[in-house]
Structure formats: C-alpha cells, structure tokens
Amino acid sequence: MDQAITAEEKTRGARFRFLRDRRAFALGRWVVRSILGVDQPPTPFLLQDHGKPHLSGYPTFNISHSGGLVAVALARNAPLGVDLEFMRQDRQMTDLIPVVCHPMEHLHIESRCPKERAATFYRCWTRKEAILKATGEGLRDNLRSLDVKLEQQHPWITSESVPLKLLDIDVKWEGYSCSLAVDPSISGLEIHSPFQSRQLECFD
C-alpha cells in the first residue's frame, strides 16, 4: 500500500494514532488513484484553498474514513462531498448537540427516542460535513447556522450559493453513519462494497 501513496502522504498518514486509521488514509488515496488510472507511479493530489484534494482534468472526488472504514466518492465535474463517521454514544455527543446543531435540528434530535438520538445526531453531523466538503468551505465557525433538514429524506440545501442534494448512505456496517452531498442534476448512484472498505462512486 505504501507504494500507492506519495512521500508527503506517508508523512501525513504516520500522524494518525491508530494503525487502522493509517491504513484507511492510504487506502482511500489508493482507491481514487486506481479508479482514475494515476496510481503507477502515484500522481500527487493538488490542494484547493481549504485543503480539499483534486486532480486537474480528472473527475471530482472526495474521501472520508473513520473507525477503519473508507468512503470514496467520485463524480464528473460536479460539487461533491462525502463524510463517514463511526458513531459513539457518550457525553461528548450530548454536549455537542447545542453547539453544532441548528435549532430545528436540535428539536428533531430531542424528539427521537433515546436509542435513536445518537444515529440522528451523526446523520446531522455527516450531512453537515458532506456539504462543507462539497463546497470546499472546511469547518464553519458557526455550524448552528446550517440546517440540513433532518425531517427530510433527500433534502436540497443551498450553501454558499451552491445547490446540493443530500443522500444518507447505508454502508451495511453497524455503528457507522455516512452522508453524500452532490449536485442535484446527478441522477445515478452506484455503490460498491469491497471487504473492509466502502467505495461510493457517483456518476451523472
């Protein structure tokens, strides 16, 4: 796997505390390069203003990993963001709700039964992250200003004047939440599930 990533990426990957996260970091980049045919030798990714990787002249892509799983999304020259999170049920999650959730999101989460609140919060979190990654904004100072319309299954959101459609992805692994933000004009979605990873390929 080390031969499929650049020297700079090896240095970045080594900063992850756990081996599974180091491997997931490398796997995500290898998957993208393999699909695009730029893995031998590995072509370095370019970075946009907020650190989002891209390759000039190639389809848009986005990568996320958490808890040892990887999500990779690709689209043909369209805004795109994917976020994958391993769900934890702890005090920190409860403390984050009033800090990162829009008032309408907060009400929706509180209306769920206790067993559903963690999954609902993480659906909110991954939707927000997918939007911010699609627009290249990075983390906002005020996440509470962004309402991802938890009461809707596939909402359309306008962020930074960019219209996006949100999709909640079932990764088939218990305890994970994954969301995808794509251009509303994209009509087809293909999901591939190899062993110990999740590759989400989106085509218009």
Key descriptive features of the protein:
Ribosomal Protein L22, Chain A; 4-stranded mixed β-sheet; disordered C terminus; globular; alpha+beta
Task: Characterise the protein shown here.
It is built from five helices and ten strands; from the N terminus they run ααβββββαααβββββ. The two termini are 30 Å apart. The chain has one domain: Ribosomal Protein L22, Chain A (Alpha-Beta Complex). 32% of the residues lie in helices and 27% in strands. The protein has a four-stranded mixed beta sheet, with helices on one face. Strands 5-8-7-6 form a four-stranded antiparallel beta sheet.
Q: What can be said about this structure in brief?
A:
GO terms for molecular function: holo-[acyl-carrier-protein] synthase activity; magnesium ion binding. The chain is α+β, with helices and mostly antiparallel strands and 204 residues long.
Strand content: 25-35%
* Shape field: globular
Domain tally: 1
Report the structural category: alpha+beta
Number of contiguous helices: 5
Give unreliable regions as ranges: 194-204
Architecture, according to CATH? Alpha-Beta Complex
Which strand order spans the largest sheet, edge to edge or round the barrel?
A: 3-4-10-9
Report, as a whole number of angstroms, the end-to-end distance.
Answer: 30 Å
CATH class: Alpha Beta
Instruction: Give the beta-strand count.
Output: 10
The CATH superfamily appears as 4'-phosphopantetheinyl transferase domain
